[in-house]
Every structure is written in structure tokens, then in C-alpha cells.
Amino acid sequence: MTRIYPLPGQPESEGEAVFDAPWQAHAFAMAVHLNEQGVFSWAEWSEQLAGLIENHEMHATIQNSDDYYRVWLEALEAMTRNLDSQNPE
Amino acid sequence: MPDTPLPHHSHGPSDIELRVSRLEKLLVDKGLVDPAAIDALVDTYQNQVGPRNGARVVARAWTDENYKKQLLENATESIMELGYQGRQGEHMQVVENTDTVHNMVVCTLCSCYPWPVLGLPPTWYKASSYRARAVSEPRAVLAEFGVEVAEDVEIRVWDSTAEIRYLVLPQRPAGTEEFNEDDLAKLVTRDSMIGVGLVQSPQSPS
Q1: What distance in Å separates the CA atoms of residue A53 and residue A61, rounded to the nearest whole number?
Q2: Which of A34, A55, A63, B42 has the smallest C-beta neighbourhood within 10 Å, fewest atoms?
Q3: What part of A 41-70 touches B (C-beta under 8 Å)?
Q4: Which domain holds residue B175?
Q5: Is residue B1 part of a domain?
Q6: With the C-alpha atoms ordered B133, B134, B135, B140, is the resulting torsion angle positive or negative?
Q7: Marked catalytic residue, from B10, B21, B78, B111
Q8: In a domain, A39, yes or no
Q9: Whole domain around residue A41: which residue ranges?
Q10: Do B84 and B32 share a domain, yes or no?
């Protein structure tokens, strides 16, 4: 089977771990939890995440879970920074 | 990052781990995050929600013509009827593979995916290469997944968004006429419900 360039982890990935590291799981869960608490809507979250992915992909690629959750964390930091400016400590 | 990078300690937590734990502590202190809820969410998505749910939906559609019709017309409610609902499954659409149409799903902008029926997406679904190439050269991508689609079969690529998420209803394989719903569900793979796999005929009926 020739591959033009590899799609990471496929197609043998059915049994792959959902998260590579606990920090990824926590970053994931915090975003979901804040959305559940009504801190931001999922549409707002997706827009933020998509924007940062677009920025990231201007100079790099997302190839693995680490790359992806680093951008996810950036989005989470950005969303909660906005929160700080609305409610200064 | 505005902060001066911390010196690297080979045995201590990495910078990224520190960033996450600092942020979590800050949000807990503000009363915005409940650590128990974080643990529960991690457990749910790590251990409880996954493509077996979607496989049940597919197997039901294969064995119940009325359910299938309803599923194609109103996926969100039909899926909820089987008990699968929640985040990222609010607005679902099911697209059916036939002898003339092969469907595949991508999220070009980020990683929208029907969590209640498939769990969290695999890494390749989130990767730049899949997100770009699924649209620009779907046939080549499918070939890399081992799926050869005949030239006269139309390939439809569905781009998921925060508003709508797609699930592929794969074709029921030959040789499964005697199979019940449970047996059929065991044959259905995650990749077949994203449209980058086909459900294979069983070697021998169990």
C-alpha cells in the first residue's frame, strides 16, 4: 500500500488511547465543564479553537494528540483570559 | 508566553503539565471548575462513550426498516431513542452509503464529531493532513485507509460544524442475512461510521 504521506496512526488506530497524557484529558474536560457551566457556548468554543488551529497551521501541522491538545489548551487559556478581563480579581 | 520559561527538570512535571495544572487551580479557586466534575468527564470520555453506541444505531437501522427511515429523516431524535444523547450530538445527520454513493465525514476547521455515538475522535481525524486531504483528494485518502471506491460511485464529503455532525450509515455486508442485531453491531467499526472503512463480511457466521 503506497501512502502519499501518512495519516498519523491510521488505520490501525481503533484501539488507540483517547488521551496520550493526563494533561490532555484535563484540558479537554475543563473546556467541556466550563461550557456545561454556561461560561461559554460550544459555538464560541469551536470558533476560538478553529481560529487557533488556523493560526497554527500557517506555520506548522497537527500530527498527533500532543499537537492538537496544545492548541486546545491555548484556546482554553484564551477563553478563560477573556473571562478574567470581565471579572477582574 | 509572557512568562520566562521554567528551567527543565527531567523528573518534574513538564511545562505543559504545569500550564494545565496552574489553569485548573485558578479556575477551581474562582469556583468555576469542580475537580470532581473534571474526573467524571475524563472517565466518561475515556471509558464509557465510544463507537459501540454508533454500532447499535447502525445495527438497528439494518434490521428495522422503519427505524432506518426515521433515522435518515430525524437522526437526533432517533439516536436519542436508543439512549444516546448529549454533548456534540445535539444536531445529527445520518448519511447512507449505497451502491452509488459513498459518504465520508471530516471537520475541516477543527474536530467536530458526534461524541454520543462515536466517542472522541481518533488522532488522525484531528490531524492537518486528513482535514485538508479529505476534501481535496478523498479517493486517495480512502485508498490509504484500504477502501477502494469504484470510479462510478460518487464520493460525498460532509464537513461537520459546531451546528451539525454527521454519522455514516455503512452498507450491510453480504453474508449477514441470518445475523441478529447484536451480531451485526459487532461487525460495525468506528471507521465505517466515519466513512473511511467498509463493514466487512464475516468470515463465518457465529
Answers
A1: 9
A2: A55
A3: 42-43, 45-47, 49-50, 53-54, 57, 61-65, 68, 70
A4: 50-194
A5: no
A6: positive
A7: B111
A8: yes
A9: 19-81
A10: no
CA distance A7 to chain B (A): 6
Question: Cα(B191)–Cα(B99) distance, rounded to whole angstroms?
Answer: 18
Of B78, B112, B160, B192, which residue is the catalytic one? B112
Q: Is the pLDDT of residue B58 over 80?
A: yes
In chain B, the residue whose alpha carbon lies closest to the alpha carbon of A48 is B110
Q: Answer whether residue A9 is part of any domain.
A: no
Tally of domains within chain A: 1
pLDDT digit string, tens, across residues A16-57: 778 999 999 999 999 999 999 999 999 999 999 999 999 999
* A 24-43 → B contacts, CB under 8 A: 25-30, 32-37, 39, 42-43
- The sign of the CA dihedral B126, B150, B146, B45 is positive
Asked if residue B106 and residue B66 are part of one domain, the reply reads yes
B32 CB within 8 Å of a chain A CB: yes
Same domain, B37 and B63: no
Contact: A30, B23; criterion CB under 8 Å: yes
Active site residue B112: yes
| pLDDT at residue A13 greater than cutoff 90 | no
For residue A12, what is its C-alpha cell?
490501525
* Whether residue B75 is found in the same domain as residue B131: yes
For residue B10, what is its C-alpha cell?
Answer: 527531567
- Model pLDDT for residues B160-198, shown as the tens digit of each residue: 988 899 999 999 999 999 999 999 999 999 999 999 999
Q: How many domains does chain B have?
A: 2
pLDDT-derived band of residue B48, with 50, 70 and 90 as boundaries? confident
**Residue B107: active-site member:** yes
ipTM associated with this complex: 0.86
The single residue listed with the C-alpha cell 427505524 is B67
Please state, in angstroms and rounded to a whole number, the distance separating the CA atoms of residues B74 and B71. 5
Is B127 within 8 Å of chain A by CB? yes
> Does the structure show a pLDDT above 50 at B91?
yes
